[in-house]
Amino acid sequence: ISNSVPDIQGFIARDGDSKELVLALRGSASIIDIMVDSAIVLVPLITPGVEAPSGVRVHSGFLVGWNSIAIQIISVIKQQLFLHPDLKNLVTTGHSLGGSLATLAAICLRRNFPSLTTRTYSYGAPRIGNKESADYFNDEFGVNASRVVHSNDGVPTMIPTSLGYHHHGAPLNTGRRRTLSREDSTKQCSPDGEDPRCSASVPSEGVNAAHMTYFGILATTPFCI
């Protein structure tokens, strides 16, 4: 999945054993991506198949980015369902910008494919919308959404709440260890999304060392979706 403007990249994989499709979306990797990140005006959530409550507002750049590939992805998934009617699950995932796009993708795809169980996983993603959007997303997904923040990653708090933004879901904060093998390296935070015990209390340092690596994987290379 790709386009030149606004330079959104990703791929769809099929896991035959788990009867699952996985949509992975790339984080920021170009000047155009940075322009998408910077378009922070809150706008109504308008995307194929979704009728969101009237108060829901989301990041305009992320929405433009997702909508630029939405029809293409919906078409590919329809084709996969035709070829593999036993498919049961759909997963969206991404790091940074990719995580924000994956969140919007999950909302859209859940509405377009209600027969599939949709789950979403984001890593180091910034806030994507207002409190109403967070409540809407939480109502739609509950435990089927995981938002992971590594240590003092500065990107999740880069867009401040003072601009009307609010995180969705209960984040899983990981410590400085390379993996999740130790219980004391993780913390399950409040489902409100802005738990002061977790990343909400971390002053944003922007793109820092903690943002670059998740679970020991360098997530900011051109080789990692």
UniProtKB/TrEMBL annotation:
GO terms for biological process: lipid metabolic process. PANTHER family: ALPHA/BETA-HYDROLASES SUPERFAMILY PROTEIN (PTHR45856), FUNGAL LIPASE-LIKE DOMAIN-CONTAINING PROTEIN (PTHR45856:SF11). Belongs to the AB hydrolase superfamily. Lipase family. Class 3 subfamily. It holds the Pfam family Lipase_3. Keywords: Disulfide bond, Hydrolase. It catalyses: a diacylglycerol + H2O = a monoacylglycerol + a fatty acid + H(+); a monoacylglycerol + H2O = glycerol + a fatty acid + H(+). One of its GO terms (molecular function) is hydrolase activity. Residues 166-179 have a biased composition (Basic residues). It comes from the Eukaryota. This is Alpha/beta-hydrolase. Residues 22-160 form the Fungal lipase-type domain. It comes from Armillaria gallica. The lineage of its organism: Eukaryota, Fungi, Dikarya, Basidiomycota, Agaricomycotina.
